[in-house]
Amino acid sequence: MTTSLQRPVTDSSRSSTLRYDSFEWQEQPPRNGVPRSAWTRSHRRVSRWHRPYIAVLLVLDYACAVLASWLAVTTFEQAGAGFQGQEGVFNLVAYLALPTAWLIVLWGSGSYDRRYLGLGSDEFKRVVRAFVVVAASVSFVAFATKTDLSRATVGSVLVGAMVLILLCRYGARQVLHVARRRTGHGAHRMVLVGTLPEALEVYTAVTRSPAAGLIPVAIHLTDGYAAARGVETPVPVYAGRDVLALVREVGADTIAVCGSASAEPGELRRLAWQLEGTGVDLVVAPQLTDIAGPRVHIRPIEGLPLLHVEEPTLSGIGWLAKNLLDRVAAAAGLLILSPLLLVIAICIRVSDPKGPVFFRQPRVGHEGRTFRVWKFRTMTVDAEERRATLEELNEGDGMLFKMREDPRIFPMGKKLRATSLDELPQLINVLKGEMSLVGPRPLPADDGDYLGDVRRRLLVRPGITGLWQVSGRSELSWDEAVRLDLYYVDNWSLTYDLAILWRTIWVVLKRKGAY
Q1: How far, CA to CA in Å, does 198 sit from each of 208, 219, 420?
Q2: How far is 439 from 469, CA to CA, in rounded Å?
Q3: pLDDT of residue 512
Q4: Better pLDDT: 106 or 120
Q5: Of 255, 276, 485, 490, which has fewest CB within 10 angstroms of its CB?
Q6: What burial class does residue 172 get, using C-beta atoms within 10 Å of its C-beta: 0-12 exposed, 13-18 middle, 19+ buried?
Q7: Rounded distance, CA 59 to CA 335, Å?
Q8: What residues form DSSP beta bridges with 202?
Q9: Does residue 232 surpass a pLDDT of 90?
């Protein structure tokens, strides 16, 4: 007898969450009544969002390759020197054969695999790999046939095609992200399988970024039914159901096995076998939250895949390069921005002449060392004394005091905070080696010793910008800000720093979470 955990009927217009105060167990009809072929077809219809998207990418990639050939041919007059008298053959190669070869190689490299579309850097890496293969193939064919080709033309065609393809794919990805955020189209509907705490943790992780296109629609409990009573959940909760039947019922196309849900030997393997030919994806979310891919490696031992987690890299050549980049960029920034800094200082003097231009506050830095941070002053001189009277209006939930309409901020200070220009003097701290361009945010030194997870942030120097700044800034809760800072510490890389600096530009321009 198959049983299920039934949820009570609720008025969806009154609340977006469901409360399970009672459990009603009843016998469920077998799935055998639905032919497997019909069941498979229904699920393939659910997961076909990627097909029109791939079709669009095929058209764009082909057009980019043709455009690159046309631009090179019109730029270099000797483009077809090796095809004298055979202009028709040259046009056939330049506008048909080479673009088709691009599509074949892109397909072979996995650039159209839906697992890599819309998120992460794998899609772009595979385009670059395809460029290398196409370049090597063209060189080999030209050498084998002794065709006299202009090196400048060939290079322009190949590099131009790669750049155009990358740009078009980036644009297509942005359109996909907008569609996912606004309409939910182009997303994967997931059923989370595991205990309630594990499933809710995965739910929180995958819903932080709507652009990722992962929408949990149900939770299937494998244990802890009694503990789930009375717990508010953002999606319906089931138990004792046949997972495949539940997937069909809720219209999902992905099963996410959370944490230790697959503890029984062979259970996960049998589930993978059941999903063959159904069009339903199977993903596993191990209990390695906030550990990035570069630190996790699969090492098979006698057929047993082991996840090897490497230690975070907080030393070595990359760390030295980060320090060098910080000092050089800080020195150049202070030199270039000195006229702007002078103008801001004069404006502060005019707006609030009673206090100094700069605000110096003790902060905790690398390995717990205390330093004084440089910032343009944005509050009145008696701001610290007035804070006690505003504690009840504090909108922050952690160590930092936050108010959207803080009466202590004078008019020029509001503009500086909105544009983040008040942070520019921290380049002095970077030049002195007390801070970094990118890192966790510096914590006040007068809040006592930092224990537990928070103290781990002190393994690296605090930064002018960081992952929390580009992910919401003051709009984030304290726990979320700490999680992002710890994620940065555990998964730091020079490439990651450059990506955060790039994202910082757009966040500052949008003035997101700045107050």
Answers
A1: 16, 10, 38
A2: 10
A3: 64
A4: 106
A5: 276
A6: middle
A7: 47
A8: none
A9: no
Residue positions counted in the chain: 515
pTM: 0.63
Tokens representing 12 are: 């969806």
The predicted pLDDT at position 338 comes to 92
Q: Which residues of 205-227 are buried (b: 16+ CB within 10 A; e: fewer)?
A: bbeeeebbbbbbbbbbbbeebee
Decide: 1 and 30 in contact? Cβ < 8 Å: no
pLDDT digit string, tens, across residues 255-265:
888 876 555 65
Question: Are the beta carbons of 53 and 113 closer than 8 angstroms?
Answer: no
Beta bridge partners of 346: none
Token digits for 112? 């159209």
Residue 161 confidence (pLDDT) above 80: yes
Cα torsion 254, 255, 257, 263: sign:
negative
Quote the radius of gyration of the chain (alpha carbons, Å).
Answer: 28
Can you name the residues that pair with 223 across neighbouring β-strands? none
CB contact at 8 A, 61 and 103: yes
Cβ atoms within 10 A of the Cβ of 190, count? 26
Query: Can you read off the two tokens belonging to residue 98?
Result: 């080479």
Please spell the DSSP secondary structure of 427-457, one letter per residue: HHHHHTTS-EEESSPPEEGGG----GGGGGG
